[in-house]
Amino acid sequence: MFVLALGACSDTDAGPQSGEDHPQHRSVASASGGMVVTGSSYATEAGLRMLEAGGNAVDAAVAAAFALTVAEPTQSGLGGRTQMLIRTVDGSVSGIDGTTQVPLSYDPDSAPDGEHGHGAIGIPGTVAALTRALAEHGTLSLQDVMTPAIGWAQEGVRMTAGEAARMGAFAGELDPSSPIAGVLLNEDGRARSTGDLLVQADLARTLRLISRGGRAVFYEGEIASAIASDMAANGGFVTLADLAAYRAVDSDVVAGTYHGHTVLGTYLPASGVTVIEILQILDRLAAPEGEDGWGSVTVEALLAGFADRDLAERLAPSVAAAWISSDSLADRRATEITARLAGGGMTPADGGRSEIDDGSESAFTTHISVADTFGNVVALTQSLGPSGGARVVSPGLGFLYASTLGGYLLGGEPGYRPWSSQAPLIVMDGDEPLLVMGGAGSRRILSALVATVTRFLDQGMSIEQALAAPRLHPTGGVVQIQAGWSGEAGLEAMGYRVERHEPGFFARLNVVHVLGDRSFVGIGEPRWMESAAAGPRR
After folding, report:
1. E strand spans, 320-429
2. How many whole angstroms separate alpha carbon 99 and alpha carbon 82?
3. SS3 labels along 85-147
């Protein structure tokens, strides 16, 4: 991940100079003038420019999100889904749900199988979410915040190793004459390599249209017409009527408590409320000493939260959100876990509480955490689903669409918004934000957030140490652990089946730590090798 810092800064290089085509930054920064943490050096650079121009955290987050569609086209884009959690200087908290939506004409019986192709595309939500956030909470114009993204689409971005690898993974499956090949392949038909210059003229034009016409041009105007025509010609379900009716809506914001701190998240289709429930369960448990003890109670609390998430989806949203975050549910689950641990915990024979991970949720997602000196913070997560999403680019538009109606869709009628493990989160210290966080990595986002918060608040670790500490994730009756973690023997002794994975298997978090003097520490995921940070340019 990439971090940019604004203000007096330590342990960082100077920021990129104007004229550099590939900004480079380190993964840890300390600063007094604001903080932007993303998964791309270009995105963090875009956010920093907004802060330097006098913009706020929302301006910076929106600029960074648009830049991601240029720098990481296989993971993030205008055709995707976005979740935002915003806490403003006046203390108000709001969430924006820009999840992709099932079109009105969707018929699962006639839909093609699989997660790729026009038939897998739902109504995109990212543009609606970003433009709404800027209109309601930003201070700069849409043209201002989109200028960096437009410039990089027109002039080109340098391919990172990660993006080149993601493109290369399915480049051989592409028709060289298709619109998507124009984005993912070089002119000679070869997969792009690390360091190649990716120029996206069609995307630059699309971004320019949005910067001038806002939400309307994407959902009702020229871009909407191009989307609908492509869908109609290729078996897609999205129509002009679907696009015109789509709205980024208010999320159900939920608050809980952990270790004396208020934790803010949102309910489905995002999963911050599940992180809140798990933390509240852990707050009621006395963990045995050592990593073995921490691991055993954390696994049990995670499994309880995962099971309740599945149950809650059957309830009305307002009812479910209140139930999941309630003290009574946390009390009950903590009592059950205490009894289960006293009896030996989960065993392979009884299965215990197990999440069924059917692989339908992809690990390819991006997250942005931003804080400014005014007191505003933003946690923003967006995704295309699997790498490359539905692997469709409409002629002349230049962006990829999320996969919504294929393997990602677990059921739902027209108008349904599929849930995900996107979990933008804010941890408060009294009346002030303390941590602004979220991540990528499908359901492992939730276990990584829980582990990081508990290690930071309970175990005396710095936020950098908490992020780097070994992780675990229970799924399908198995506990996946980071190889070499010292607590694995205790889990096996209690009857858990353990699978060992390298660090890169686990989720990738981006975190801003807001210090009491309104200075900031930004941490990009240490398991993400493209991490970097930079200080201010004066």
Report:
1. 365-371, 377-383, 425-429
2. 6
3. EEECCCCCEEEEEECCECCCCCCCCCCCCCCCCHHHCCECCHHHHHHHHHHHHCCCCHHHHHH
Of 156, 243, 140, the residue nearest 203 (C-alpha):
156
Query: How is residue 450 written in tokens?
Result: 């829980």
Query: Cβ-count burial of 212 within 10 angstroms (0-12 exposed, 13-18 middle, 19+ buried)?
Result: exposed
Name every residue whose Cβ is closer than 8 Å to that of residue 48 and which is 6 or more positions away in sequence.
4, 6, 15, 34, 36, 60, 534
What pLDDT, in 10s, does the model give residues 308-361? 988 887 788 888 889 999 999 999 999 999 988 887 655 332 333 434 444 444
- Domain extents for the chain? 253-360+426-528
Q: How far apart are CA 292 and CA 289, in angstroms?
A: 7
C-alpha triplet 423, 427, 431: angle, nearest 5°: 140
Distance of alpha carbon 311 from alpha carbon 306, whole angstroms: 9
* CB-based contact 366:38 (threshold 8 Å): yes
d(CA 299, CA 307): 12
Q: Is 416 left (phi over 0), alpha (psi -120 to 50) or beta?
A: beta
Alpha carbons 204 and 371: distance in angstroms, whole number: 28
pLDDT tens column, 14-61: 333 333 456 665 677 778 889 999 988 899 999 999 999 999 999 999
Q: Are 259 and 278 contacting, i.e. CB atoms less than 8 angstroms apart?
A: no
DSSP-derived letter for residue 385 is S
Q: Which fold has domain 253-360+426-528?
A: Serum Albumin; Chain A, Domain 1 (1.10.246)
Q: What pTM did the predictor assign? A: 0.91
Other residues' Cβ atoms within 10 Å of the Cβ of residue 516:
9
Residue among 373, 93, 446, 299 nearest 437 (CA): 446
Written as six digits, the tokens of 45 are 């650079």
Please state, in angstroms and rounded to a whole number, the distance separating the CA atoms of residues 518 and 375: 8
- Cα separation of 100 and 102, whole Å? 7
Question: Which residue type is seen at 296?
Answer: S
Give residue 26's Cα distance to chain centre. 20
Nearest to 119 by CA among 234, 247, 240: 234
Among the listed residues 233, 193, 135, 178, the one whose alpha carbon sits nearest the alpha carbon of residue 400: 178
Torsion of CA 505, 439, 427, 466, to 10 degrees: 30
* CA–centroid distance for 528 within its chain: 14
Q: How far apart are CA 300 and CA 294, in angstroms?
A: 10
For residue 201, give the H/E element and its range.
helix 201-219
